[in-house]
Design the sequence.
């Protein structure tokens, strides 16, 4: 992915899945509490996707020393992979990996 397609957006939001407040840092693309997100971007930060469906965490993978949560849109079925940050609930990721993949 080219950095030219990335738009840093510092936005706070209320997670539509768990209801917890999230303080965005400009790179936040999912809820750190439950690892769900919303399908709003075509490229990270552009807010150009009209779908708006909730992105369910369906799996996890590790590569190059980084963990990613795999999410699937409940509305359109698109799959995204998002890097985890140190603020994310790693226990949630382990539970997702154990239960779903």
Sequence:
């Amino acid at each position: 992915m080219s950095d030219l397609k990335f738009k840093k957006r510092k936005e706070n939001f209320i997670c539509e899945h768990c209801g917890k407040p999230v303080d965005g840092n400009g790179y936040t693309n999912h809820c750190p509490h439950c690892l769900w997100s919303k399908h709003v971007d075509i490229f990270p930060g552009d807010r150009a996707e009209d779908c708006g469906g909730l992105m369910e965490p369906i799996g996890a993978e590790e590569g190059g020393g980084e963990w990613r949560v795999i999410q699937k849109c409940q509305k359109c079925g698109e799959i995204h992979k998002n890097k985890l940050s140190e603020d994310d609930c790693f226990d949630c990721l382990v539970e997702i990996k154990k239960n779903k993949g």
About this structure: Residues 90-100 form the longest helix (11 residues).
